## 1
Amino acid sequence: MRERCFSLPGRGPGTRHQVLTLSFGDPDARPHVHVQGGLHADEGPGMMVARLLADLLAQAEAAGRLRGHVTVVPFANPLGLGQVLHGDHSGRFDLYDGRNFNRDYPDLSDDAAAGLEGRLTGDPQRNVALVRAALRAALQQRQPVGPAEALRHHLMGLALDADVVLDLHCDGEAEMHLYTQPAAWDRLAPLATLTACRAVLLAEVSGGHPFDEALSGPWTAIAARFPDHPVPLGCASTTVELRGRSDVCRTQGLRDAQAIMDYLVHLGVLSGSVDLPPAACSPTPLAGSEALTAPAAGLLSYAVPLGSLVQAGQTVAEITDLETGQVIPVRASTTGVFYARPATRIAEAGKRLGKIAGDRPFRDGPLLSP
């Protein structure tokens, strides 16, 4: 195991942060898998799993099992880790400007494509190397200003060369689920089965330029830009939602870390063999995911547990009006798995109350939560 620390400037004079990267195996070996936790710094499950995964990888490396290369960032957002307001951690949004730490990553497609004009060949693997070099050059041309942009730039640079990227997150309360692009699904399907995902949400563009799409998106864009040359998907990237915020548990985290280790075996990063279990779900379009919203303010309770298959028209939640005592039902308008909900039980009008993974697309525009 090799450790590297990147020094990140703080907002004020004399303040700095560090991003730790742990590297396993030969840095030039393939496949290269990059794993990070805590980009939303108030989401502990991803940081726990990333830390425990690093421990398992250190054991595997000592046993001579590394065939590929793995990089792990146990806490990807030291800026957000330092944001504690009145005793509560606030790590999803930058308190300086309100921006989501998992949005606004640069789209390198156009700059990389410009650098590839007249250079692509008939050899798919040669083209993968050329595209990776062009993406690195496009990133290096950008000069980040301020700590948050420096962090985005650094994290992109760490992951840009990887064949597979796992960005570990969680929801308020949730079943295991993941987000990815359709082109990446075949490579990531074994991960979904090994982690027992109850929902897989696919979108070509989800909106907001999140980290995972900034890595895999340019490959599909460049392939479309040069249809006469074979350009395979050089990076399959996903956002893995490790249940809910309170699910920080070493026992559960170890099971999740072991599931990722099994996935690394499947990819050939680690020696060994693994049997894939049956899939717990089929992928559905992110555009078919219904976000239930509160029609009024009040106290929130749920009529069905997480993981339930709900039908269109079924009552999923109820809001109790504290002034009148009226109970207002919140019904699903689509059929699918009820896979996520907030951790709080006080609702304001318009609050998102849960997500249902339906198989019929009905939304457009930005598809992710703010």
## 2
Amino acid sequence: MFSTRRTLLGGFAVLPILGGLPGPARARSVGDAAATALASVFTAAAPPALAAGIVTRNGLVWSGVRGVRRAGGGDLATLNDRWHLGSNTKAMTAAVFGRLVEQGRARWAMPVTAAFPGLTIDPAWNGITLDDLMRHRGGLLDGPVVNRAWLMAAHADTRPLPEQRAELARGVFSAPPAGPVGAFAYSNANYIVVGAAIEAITGEAWETVMQHELFQPLGLASAGFGAPKGEAPWGHQGGVAVDPAGIADNPAALGPAGTVHMTLADYAGFIGAMMGGAPDWLSEDTRRHLLTPAVGDPPAYAAGWGIGTAPWAGVGEPGPTITHNGSNTLWFATVLAAPERGLGVITLSNDGVAGQRACSSLIPHLVIAATA
């Protein structure tokens, strides 16, 4: 049984301002520095495989991969492999909701009572919005709903996924919020409910809406859901490869909170778009809303993004950063990006423990390489 880990990275504020983006004449030195860092961290942390990339608004400018698809095997991981992104899916679900707002099918600050017409909702939810849920400040906690019993039952549930998510939403809203409204409390249930709202608004499964509103417009041809099957790395638990044909991920009903997989290049395409590289897909107003955290106590968390600042992240001065980690305990993914500068770094691994060490350790080295 798996549960999605979630540890937000800081903004790496201790890094100095190290100049502009590398130009063509410097691309080799940037690539050499990044490749050296990848090799060093891979050796030290020893995950089965580790992939990394430096990304601008136009996509990858450098990428590399080390290791094998399965521990003990000789099948090398490649840059065409698909990687499980875990909770980094949340930012995608939020972006799809933003697309619905642009289309006039939803609205910002949409009350949960409006998102689920006809659903009996406890009065204590009055005034709480989908924005609150996307920022984990609606008082919704995992414990009462997305717990071990739910995970076990959901793995065995054969009903259509929208029906399962709607049932979870009914259970959530039949009682008052379990946590303090307005206080940050990270919860996968928040995004399962947002996914259910997307299904209620569109009349289609979240997976279908993701295809139509995100994967297809951005050309993310490798994107899919769950542990990647076929020619792909396997996730690892305790250093042992877990066959994706069995239970190798959270149940599919948890999808909006953390089941997307794709290649490094395709994930870089999404990150580039979130830095402003796809204005025809997501307007500047929508992008700004998605990257603006709630006003209140720390941490600063927007719609699927931890928000920070760093000296290297602006243009000639400190600027904002967006970041998130994702894991289903068998994989690990980390991204740190500077939207104003149009520069980001990504690390991916097919192990939840050694992969976390590797991904987290490599991020600052890639930032230094990219900004040197």
## 3
Amino acid sequence: MRAIQVAEFGGPEVLVATELPDPVAGPGQVVVEVAVTDTIYVETQIRGGWGPQFGIEPPYVPGGAAAGTVLAVGDGVDPAWTGRRVVAGPGALGTYAEQVAVPLDRLIPVPDGLGLREAAALAHDGVTGTGIAEAAGIRPGERVLILGASGGMGTLLVQMARAAGARVVGAARGERKLGLVRELGADAVVDYSEEGWTDRAREALGGAGADVLLDGVGGELGLAGFALTADGGRVSTHGASSGGFAAVDAGEAERRGITLRGISEVQYGAADITRLSAQALARAAAGRLRPVIAATFPLARAAEAHAAIEARAVAGKALLTSLSG
């Protein structure tokens, strides 16, 4: 089969198409013919040198989720899975490929009426976003500030917060991305690349600050967002697209009665992945959640996808289509 392999850490150019043996389903596994592969920002960071932090060393096939059709099943797996449309959920490693072997506990059926592109776009972000929104417990009338609101997960969080009845302030970079955030239902938008953005965000939040901060950016922007959080609020610091997670002072958070949740709280086990993914897919199939697909690249052009993601040229999701489909 054709796949994308990283032989050494580096820029997008290290993503190279290669031929690898077709996978074989082991006990408790299935082989999925990949139609669409999800991409997330952290994959560019792993490729760029963060690999050892995740236990990844070259050579490796990137990717952690995809959507496609079950080709074959291994021992102990019901043959009825064969031919079903599925998401190979987070933890299905090596999905930048035409086929991938997936443990049964990482397999989620795709509901009727939902396309594989949309299902793939929800494979990571639908799980994490649903879990973040669930843990935040957003209530009607609350003020929610979302940093990175135009990204794959940010666009989902905007919709989820609005559905919960919150006043949503979305922060992103540039008018094109802000326009998307408005379209998705944000009550106000703020460009955090502009000087004085925190003043405008506080005004949009009604002066009292955010009851809930959902930080998908990290770094100094994340710290600025934390400063905009009201005492007694809830904060999720789950993103690091700025290059690092926000170094929030846990002592200050405790003094202000702010509940902190970080990246470790969104590392879900198989049972939660299945549950959260099924919720996200069902909402999308019912028309209550729309993944924003900004660009689709052939698998062989994975380097272009990574370059676009790193250049912040993508508002929403970038997906890869398999060489066979």
